[in-house]
Amino acid sequence: MDKGVSFAELKGTLDYFAKSMFGPEVNIRLRPSYFPFTEPSAEVDMSCTICGGAGCNICKQSGWVEIMGCGMVDPAVLVNCGIDAEVYSGFALGMGVERIAQLIYRVPDLRMYWENDVRFLDQFTAGTFRS
Q1: Cα-Cα-Cα-Cα dihedral sign, residues 1, 92, 5, 13
Q2: What is the DSSP string of 105-128?
Q3: Domain residues of the chain, as ranges?
Q4: I want to staple 93 with a disulfide (CB 3.0 to 4.6 A). Which of 55, 70, 76, 130 is the partner?
Q5: Which phi and psi (to 5°) does residue 77 adopt?
Q6: Number of Cβ within a 10 Å radius of residue 47
Q7: Residues forming a β-bridge with 71
Q8: 74-118 pLDDT, tens per residue?
Q9: Partners of 38 in the beta sheet?
Q10: Strands 91-94, 88-89: parallel, antiparallel or unpaired by DSSP?
Q11: What is the pLDDT of residues 26-71, one digit of tens each?
């Protein structure tokens, strides 16, 4: 939140995050979506780090993986919080840590997180997953 925060700044922040977390070769794209309390809203996709964008089971052969949702805070939310929506704006984003861990550690299936098998954690070594 600040004076004059724009959607372009949101996109720049997301791009910086993705490149910092996954490497400078990663690209992002934003797709229009709907989330309560934000308008406009978008889904954030990232080029697949598992296959380099060539297509694999993680990215469903598309070369892209959805990593989070985001959007500009709806001015009605600001007004309800006593903030002047004519002066201030801001953005919001949210992600599941499971997807980020999947891409960093190359976990082949998100369902593995919910199998409640502690041995799952023992399979990780510095940035790799032993299947």
Answers
A1: positive
A2: HT-S-GGGGGS--GGGGGGEETTE
A3: 2-95
A4: 70
A5: -65, -45
A6: 19
A7: 41, 92
A8: 999 999 999 999 999 999 999 888 888 888 888 878 888 888 887
A9: 73
A10: unpaired
A11: 999 999 999 999 999 999 999 998 888 899 888 999 999 999 999 9
Q: Rounded to an integer, what distance in angstroms lies between the CA atom of residue 112 and that of residue 17?
A: 26
H/E segment holding residue 57? none
Contact 92, 71 (CB under 8 A): yes
Residue pair 45/38 in contact (Cβ under 8 Å)? The answer is no
Exposure string (b/e) for 70-79, b if CB count within 10 Å is 16 or more? bbbbbeebbe
Calpha distance 37→94 (Å, rounded) = 13
Q: Report phi then psi at 42, rounded to 5.
A: -150, 150
Pick the CATH number of 2-95 from 3.30.930.10, 3.80.30.20, 3.30.1390.10, 3.10.300.10: 3.30.930.10
The residues that bridge with 57 in the sheet, in sequence order, are none
